[in-house]
Amino acid sequence: MNYRYDDLHGVAWRGVATDTVDDTVPADRVLLLLGASGNRRLLEGHLQDHCTVLEPGKCGLPEDGFDLVIADVGGFRHWRRRLQEAKRREAPTFLPVVLLLSRSELDRRLAALWDVADEFIVTPIERREFSERVAMLLRARSMAIAQRDHLAYLVNYDSVTGLPNKSLFLDRLVAAIREASVLNRQLPVTVIRIPLGRVLKSFGHHALERAVTACSRRLQTLLGDTASLARLSTDEWGLLHRPGTTVNEVLEVCGRIRQIAESPVEIGDERVRITPRVGVGLYPEDGADAATVLDRATSALSETDDVGPVFYSRQVQQEALRFVRTEARLLEALEKGEFEQWFQPQLCLETGRILGVEALVRWRLPSGELVPPGEFLAVAETCGLMPRIDHCMLVNVCATMSEWRRQGVGIERVAVNVSAEDVRAPGFAATIRDTLEHYQLPPPSLELELTETALFDISDENLQKLNDLRGLGVSIAVDDFGTGYSSLSYLHRLPITTLKIDRAFITDVHRDETNAAITRTILWLAHNFGLETVAEGIETPDEARYLRSLEVYSVQGFLFGRPMPARDLLRWMKQRSARWRL
């Protein structure tokens, strides 16, 4: 009997040491295509201990693939066209097909079936021979897959660093642009150039590879999973961001990249300093296809010797420069104490009595000019300065509150904004507690305002911090409720005391039925969960009258009082009447 593959004596089933299957190795998938022959039960008995046995579906062959096909003449005739298509899809990877034939069928049909079948087994089946033949074919299939995967790795990955190469990077960029187009989102592409020519000239190719590997590892450590890193050429790396990544987020990533220059690369006994340069291209502003956007990011590198990120788009570059300059000025402002605490009153809508104030940060330049919050808060959040600013505010606000209590000012509670980053800090709860004790303030005089985003998917550790503070008597409010990740589960799980109804729902609430319905729903939720509410952003008497008709208790907005420094707040309190009348 002649076979197309030489007999491999001693071939074992993959993943089999004794008679058990190693759970860490996926079982081979064997597809049975049998007509009216009586071999099905016999074959399943031979295969089921070592393989996953599959059957064809009503509409075709299994969509999730298979490793070996065993067919008799009837099954082969019925599925021949589908088998040819499956083998073409797998090509050049070997997909073995075994045909079961009687001796008479073998003589008559061998030449006609040779184009699809790879192996012929004559019936009646002898178990040992069958098992060896199947194992041999599966091993051949496994080796073909391993070779295919190895070749794919060589084609798509850099041999020095193991990072995706330029070819794979472009493929992924094409897919990302397709996704960004569907979502109508911006897609940034960053190119990082680290000049290593002098390393090659001074120390040779081996040293260059060591330097490239060291730079790649540093970049991977600094970037984490924020973007996909690839090696594009000898001294260039590509960074593919997620669709929708903003310019500010790109700048935050570029800030991490600059940290690679903080320590030199060691090459033998030598220490070589490296200075990365960064260029950024944006889809669709700078190009409509992958190659163009990548070329624009690379071109941006050549336009300046500045170590800061360079955007191909002039307009975006101006925004980036403003961001970098604002970040530098923020650091200086923290050192010089240029941040001020301003306060906006919160009142009882029915009586006009002041219930408390919200503390808001303001930045006054040495010239006396105030920087609009919209121009620096986003920058501070992106570059990680908000925790320092928030701590500065907490200390100053508590100091002011302590002075007000000494003077007998009738302000019972002050609300301060805290971020998710603040809560994640190891000493967050202790810092709040120690600050209150230092200024001899009762915990109920402080309210912490967190956004829904900060509270979303909060860890058990951080939840415990909030529980500890609530146990002390500190109030916890959800700011801008309804604009983020609103969920009944966190209203139940978190130690929340107050919901602040966002201005977006208060604007024209008296004539906008959608806003009115949302506001009524939030009030109903707060009532049923036993929470307080504060309606924010009230600017007109009509809005105030409608909220009073809903029995809203606490309000805040320009209609009653704008944010103001502490001294102006005290003056405002003296001048206003004891009762608010609409």
Question: Which regions have little confidence, pLDDT < 50, spanning 5+ residues?
Answer: 1-24, 578-582
Question: What do the pLDDT scores average to?
Answer: 84
> How would a crystallographer describe the biggest sheet?
8 strands, mixed, barrel
Q: Approximately how much beta-strand content do the residues carry?
A: 15-25%
Lateral strand order in the biggest sheet: 13-14-16-17-18-19-20-21
Specify the CATH class of the largest domain: Alpha Beta
**Can you tell me the overall shape?**
elongated
> What is the number of beta strands?
22
Helix/sheet category = alpha/beta
Name the helicity range. Answer: 40-55%
Determine the N-to-C terminus distance. Answer: 104 Å
InterPro entries: CheY-like_superfamily, Cyclic-di-GMP_PDE-like, EAL_dom, EAL_sf, GGDEF_dom, Nucleotide_cyclase, Rev_trsase/Diguanyl_cyclase
Domain GGDEF: 187-317
GO molecular function: cyclic-guanylate-specific phosphodiesterase activity
Domain EAL: 323-577
How would you describe the overall organization of this protein?
- Helix 14 packs parallel to helix 16.
- The longest helix is centred in the N-terminal third of the chain and has 30 residues, at 127-156.
- The model is unreliable at 1-24 and 578-582 (pLDDT under 50).
- This protein has 3 domains: 28-156, Response regulator (Rossmann fold, 3-Layer(aba) Sandwich); 166-325, Alpha-Beta Plaits (2-Layer Sandwich); 337-575, TIM Barrel, CATH 3.20.20.
- It is elongated, with a radius of gyration of 35 Å.
- An 8-stranded mixed β-barrel has the order 13-14-16-17-18-19-20-21.
- With 582 residues, it is an alpha/beta fold.
- The protein has 21 helices and 22 strands.
